[in-house]
Specification:
- The complex is a heterodimer of chains A (503) and B (220).
- By secondary structure, chain A is mainly α.
- Among the domains of chain A are: 54 residues; 112 residues; 157 residues, Glutathione S-transferase Yfyf (Class Pi), Chain A, domain 2.
- Chain A has 20 helices and no strands.
- Chain B has 220 residues and is α/β, with parallel strands linked by helices.
- Chain B is 32% helix and 20% strand.
- The chains are: A mainly alpha (503), B alpha/beta (220).
- Chain B: GO terms for molecular function: GTP binding; GTPase activity.
- Chain B: Pfam families: Ras.
- Chain B: InterPro entries: P-loop_NTPase, Rab21, Small_GTP-bd, Small_GTPase.
Chain lengths: 503, 220
């Protein structure tokens, strides 16, 4: 009996415990519900606030642009971008701090560059987002052309395969994945292009990936994620690989391949070249629009940059950020378009590789009389070394500076050589004018042994900011272009290129 | 940088490009050195020496930046002229008064410039080496009437004696300013409504040649 009672009690206690637990759970659930409701309300309030803020900023942007009736799509876009900037500035303090800093130190010239480079390092800032957007657009335009088909000319110079992707931030890699996977043409040209070596030739297919195991999988991921690096690989092959057969061209070119047999080869090439030139023109235009937009947004974000000198600095920074990862692809397209000119250059280069400066019209007082005096070296070697660095830079402005340095070195060398001749006589009046400079520059460019210079300069001509073309930089670029054109015409023995071709 | 010629707050700054044309030994290098440095014997002039020179002037309260582009006179580089003289505001064509051939060359260049650049370029024909007048082979009348017939101005200079050079360039600058101002007026009439399309952003998009360093006119 007692035992029974005891058991009852135990059971009762167990029930009681269960009940208690249940009640506790109930109250907990109620609390949770309450919390949820509160959270929801908070969220709604926040959303409303956000919406209000957005509207307010939109209005501010509208005021800023002083809407004059109708709005173009471009204006609309700019307004949206500016709204994004304002929104960003509400969430981040650094723009305010920089602006204040700029105001306090208006004479600090380094501040402008520092601000712009800081701005360009903020991946979530609208300016940087816009930069990436434009870069991918241009890149997508270049990729199919550059990755497909190789130039026939066996280039002498090996392009250093520097991977440019690391210049971009990890965030952009993720973004690149999106861009790449959304652009189908991208992946197909990847898997089908015959110019690929076997390791890249994996089919871009999920099932196959799994079947083939680890290795191809990682490679496909590389293809998709490090698209810039991937392109870099193409570009390396572009210089190395022999001309490939056009019959096994990409799938997208199937119709074209069929026609090839029916039409004359030359005609096809002509058409192809015309299409390529059109494409190049479009790309150049895109690049200019992109840079214009970026500069505008930059100046909108930081009004303090809107002075003549700051604007120049700002533009230089934007251009550097914009071109650095894209240059090798851009110049690859220029090389395709300028293939004939590069070939002419190469022919002359082979014919005249050992020619003395005198052969190119350099007056004898401007180079050492006997090669022995230079001890294994040749005249103007330092200028040649300087010019060889041009292809290594990835930003137009830096390349232009390289050309300027080359010409300066030439002038300094010429001065030295003349002094060698005039040890006894009094210093002569004449300094180096264009009459002397151009033959020497031709000699230097010839010794540089780099046909790619032709395309590099053609690209510079397109991308260098107009403001620079009137000054010393412009003069140097023009002289370089002239020297290259002269070299191209050398092997024909005096039959010069028509002048209008160069303009 | 050389590109920093944008219009400041106090008045406008003009940037002009002038090409220098002439055969090898007419003395164009000495001429331009005289003008820019006024040091006939200085051995260290600029980094690019006499090939490319700049000069800052102040003409009737307006700032003028002059960029003088020397060109190669040799026949072998003749075909390359156009890439040098495109977008020039002015051209100085130099011949040697003792050398008939060099005058003939000037005539060829005038023809070419007019053909390629029309009447917008201000031409100056310059007979250099007047210190050697006793050996003159190009008569003053012939040269002056030729210049007039092609809408160019004629000058006589001596780089050696530093004669006539200052006047030549001052005159040329004034003419280029006039041309630029006329162009601006023409543009100003038509551009007033389109200017409002890009408010808020100070983009000097289609500024006349006179002020190319506006900053962001890379759309061209």
């Amino acid at each position: 009996m007692i035992r029974k009672m005891f058991r009852r009690q135990v059971e009762l206690r167990a029930y009681w415990r269960k009940l208690k637990a249940f009640v506790k759970k109930l109250s907990l659930q109620r609390q949770m519900m309450e919390n949820l409701i509160i959270a929801k309300a908070r969220q709604d309030a926040l959303q409303r606030k956000m919406e209000e803020r957005r509207l307010r900023l939109q209005e501010e942007a509208n005021r800023r642009f002083a809407a004059s009736g109708a709005m173009t799509a471009e204006e609309q876009e700019q307004r949206t971008l500016y709204t994004n900037v304002l929104e960003y500035e509400q969430d981040h303090d650094w723009p305010k701090l920089w602006k204040a800093n700029m105001k306090e130190n208006p004479d600090d010239v380094t501040l402008v560059s520092r601000l712009v480079s800081y701005l360009l390092s903020r991946c979530d800032h609208p300016v940087v987002k816009l930069l990436r957007k434009h870069q991918y657009r241009v890149y997508n335009g270049l990729y199919p052309i550059v990755s497909k088909g190789l130039p026939q000319s066996p280039a002498v110079l090996l392009r250093p395969s520097r991977s440019t992707h690391n210049l971009l931030h990890p965030e952009t890699k993720r973004k690149s994945t999106n861009t790449v996977s959304s652009g189908q043409g991208f992946s197909t040209s990847l898997s089908l292009s015959p110019s690929l070596s076997h390791d890249l030739n994996t089919n871009y297919d999920d099932e196959e990936e799994e079947e083939e195991g680890e290795e191809p999988h990682t490679q496909v991921t590389v293809d998709r994620e490090n698209s810039f690096e991937d392109l870099e690989q193409f570009l390396t092959q572009l210089d190395l690989a022999p001309p490939h057969d056009s019959t096994d061209d990409t799938g997208s070119d199937a119709e074209l391949t069929c026609d090839t047999s029916m039409l004359k080869e030359g005609h096809i090439q002509e058409l192809e070249m015309r299409a390529m030139k059109e494409h190049l023109k479009a790309i150049v235009k895109d690049v200019h629009i992109a840079i214009d937009q970026l500069l505008s947004l930059c100046l909108l974000s930081f009004e303090c940059l809107n002075t003549a000198s700051s604007k120049d600095l700002c533009l230089a920074s934007i251009e550097e950020a914009f071109f650095t990862p894209l240059w090798s692809a851009l110049v690859a397209l220029f090389r395709k378009v300028n293939r004939e000119r590069e070939r002419a250059f190469e022919t002359s280069m082979k014919l005249y590789q050992d020619a003395s400066p005198g052969v190119l019209g350099v007056p004898s007082k401007l180079f050492p009389p006997e090669p022995d005096t230079l001890q294994g070296s040749y005249p103007y070697e330092s200028a040649v070394q300087e010019l060889k660095l041009l292809v290594k830079d990835c930003c137009p402005q830096k390349k232009l500076e390289c050309i300027v340095r080359t010409l300066r070195v030439i002038c300094a060398c010429a001065e030295d050589y003349r002094c060698l001749h005039e040890v006894d006589s009094a210093p002569k009046t004449a300094a180096i004018g264009a009459d002397d400079l151009l033959p020497i520059l031709s000699f230097v460019a010839l010794r540089c042994q780099c046909p790619q210079l032709v395309s590099e300069c053609a690209a510079l001509e397109e991308f260098i900011h107009e403001g620079y073309l009137i000054g010393e930089e412009g003069y140097c670029l023009t002289s370089m272009q002239s020297a290259l054109a002269y070299i191209e015409s050398l092997h024909t023995g005096g039959a010069y290129l028509p002048a209008d071709k160069l303009i | 940088m050389a590109a920093g010629g944008a219009g400041g707050n106090s008045g406008k700054t003009y940037s002009f490009k002038v090409v220098l044309l002439g055969e090898g030994c007419v003395g164009k290098t000495s001429l331009v050195l005289r003008y820019c440095e006024n040091k006939f014997n200085d051995k260290h002039i600029t980094t690019l020496q006499a090939s490319f020179l700049t000069k800052k002037l102040n003409i009737t309260g307006k700032r003028v930046n002059l960029a003088i582009w020397d060109t190669a006179g040799q026949e072998r580089f003749h075909a390359l002229g156009p890439i040098y003289y495109r977008d020039s505001n002015g051209a100085v064509l130099v011949y040697d008064i003792t050398d008939e051939d060099s005058f003939q060359k000037v005539k060829n260049w005038v023809k070419e410039l007019r053909k390629m650049l029309g009447n917008e370029i201000c031409l100056c024909i310059v007979g250099n080496k007047i210190d050697l007048d006793k050996d003159r082979h190009v008569s003053v009348e012939e040269a002056e009437s030729y210049a007039e017939s092609v809408g160019a101005k004629h000058y006589h200079t001596s780089a050696k004696l530093n004669k006539g050079i200052e006047e030549l360039f001052l005159d040329l600058c004034k003419r280029m300013m006039e041309t630029a101002q006329a162009e601006e007026r023409l543009k100003g009439n038509g551009a007033s409504q389109s200017a409002s399309s890009r408010r808020g952003v100070q983009i000097v998009d289609d500024e006349p040649q006179a002020t190319p360093a506006g900053g962001c006119c890379s759309s061209g």
